[in-house]
Structure formats: structure tokens, C-alpha cells
Design brief:
Helix content is 51%, strand content 15%. It is built from 14 helices and eight strands. The relative contact order is 0.15.
Length: 239
């Protein structure tokens, strides 16, 4: 199966291991991964800040890029996936672009949804001994409704025990530009999240949105907590 891989800005600039493991995982599962080099930012930072008009050139550029073929588009980030799936609404005042946006949005899936539903795979043969807390990011779980797919894949990782925590579904405080505009509130939110994580003393914190993981990892590092933070793609490529 041929698939397009949308790397995301954070994956490209800050978390190359996550992007690499996402591609390796898809290839391991039998996909022919296509990387369209003209892809760029989805416009999410501007959209989240209220600058939808300013984000439209980025939206249109990405739409045009992914019109090069009609294969599924897979992203390792719920936030970017949701942003692209929202393009038709943002471009509603331009009917031609809205229609093109819908065609692209309909092909867009987050990594875990693609593996579980499109490929029909629930066990990728990964092994990672230890105890872990899974952080369900807001964009993935609340906006996209992707809740069970990551958990299904993680439950089938050999040796991995998932631990529940208090307020597991509460936001980590990142929220895109919220963490910049409301830094004090954001800091308190991630502090509370880490407190709940450390209540169960896990070996790993796992998530499917790199931005949230960077936020949580930063707090863990400042508190000198010996917990490894991993994107789900990295976990699923572990043996």
C-alpha cells in the first residue's frame, strides 16, 4: 500500500527520531512510503492564534502538494491531522478551494488510526518491558475522537504495562501558542500533570503528539525525574 507521510514541523525540526520511526514502522507493516518534499507547515500555529487569513497560503500550498497523488496521508501528530481536516471550514468562503481541501482532508489520518483501521493491524510485534503512562493529547482524543486506537496498539506491546493516573485526560498545558501566551497557567498545568505521572512512578511516558511530549519532558527534566518520554512510533519500533 502506498501512503504519503506528513512529517510535521516539530517532527522535521526537533524530533527526527520520531519521524524516522514512523516511516520505518509503516515500511515494516508493508507500506510504500512517499515523502512529498514540497510539503510545509499546516498553518496550525497561525490558526491557533486567530490568524486564519494569514494561514491560508500555507493551507493552499499543502493542499496543492498532496494533490500530486491520491494515496492516504499519514501524520504522527493529532494536532496537525486535525488542523488539515479543518481546512474545508476555514476555506468555506472559497468554494473551489474548499472542495479541494475536503478531498485532501478525507485522505488524512493519524498514524494509529491508519494502522488499526485502514491496515487492520492491532499488534505490530513490538517489545518494551516496563511500566508506562499514556498521555491522550487533546487534539487526538477530543478533537479527532481517537481514543482506543493508540491504547489498542500499546496493550499489545510485549512487556509493557499501562498505568492509569489521576486526571489522565486533562490537558498537559501545551495547547500550541497557549503555552507562550499563558505561560504561567501552562506551567502550572504541566506541573500538575507531572505530579500525577510521578504518583505511579512509571518508566515511560508515551503519547502520540510530539508537542505535548516535549512539554511534559521539559517539566520532567527540570524536576530531574528519571522517566523516558517516547512517541508511540518509537515504542512500536522497539524490540
Amino acid at each position: 500500500m502506498k501512503v504519503n507521510f506528513y512529517v510535521t514541523c516539530i517532527g522535521d525540526a526537533l524530533k527526527a527520531n520520531m519521524a524516522r520511526d514512523s516511516v520505518l514502522l509503516l515500511e515494516k507493516l508493508g507500506c510504500d512510503v512517499i515523502f512529498l518534499e514540497r510539503q510545509g507547515c499546516c498553518g496550525q500555529p497561525a490558526i491557533n492564534s486567530g490568524y486564519v487569513k494569514d494561514a491560508k497560503p500555507a493551507m493552499k500550498s499543502l493542499i496543492t502538494t498532496f494533490e500530486e497523488n491520491d494515496y492516504p496521508i499519514v501524520s504522527p501528530a493529532g494536532s496537525c491531522t486535525y488542523a488539515i481536516k479543518s481546512y474545508p471550514a476555514y476555506l468555506a468562503d472559497e468554494p473551489e478551494w474548499a472542495a479541494r481541501a475536503k478531498a485532501v482532508a478525507d485522505r488524512m489520518q493519524d498514524l494509529t488510526t491508519f494502522i488499526v483501521h485502514t491496515m487492520g493491524i492491532v499488534n505490530v510485534g513490538a517489545r518494551l518491558p516496563g511500566k508506562a503512562v499514556y498521555h491522550p493529547s487533546c487534539s487526538l482524543s477530543r478533537k479527532l475522537g481517537v481514543v482506543e486506537e493508540p491504547l489498542t496498539l500499546l496493550r499489545n506491546v510485549e512487556g509493557l504495562e499501562l498505568l492509569p493516573i489521576v486526571n489522565q485526560e486533562t490537558c498537559c498545558g501545551f495547547g500550541g501558542t497557549f503555552s507562550v501566551k499563558m505561560s504561567e497557567i501552562s506551567g502550572e498545568m504541566v506541573k500538575e500533570k507531572v505530579e500525577h505521572i510521578m504518583d505511579v512512578v512509571p518508566d515511560f511516558v508515551i503519547g502520540a503528539d510530539t508537542s505535548c511530549l516535549i512539554n511534559i519532558s521539559g517539566r520532567l527534566t527540570r524536576e530531574k525525574r528519571p522517566v523516558k518520554v517516547m512517541h508511540i512510533a518509537e515504542v512500536l519500533m522497539s524490540r
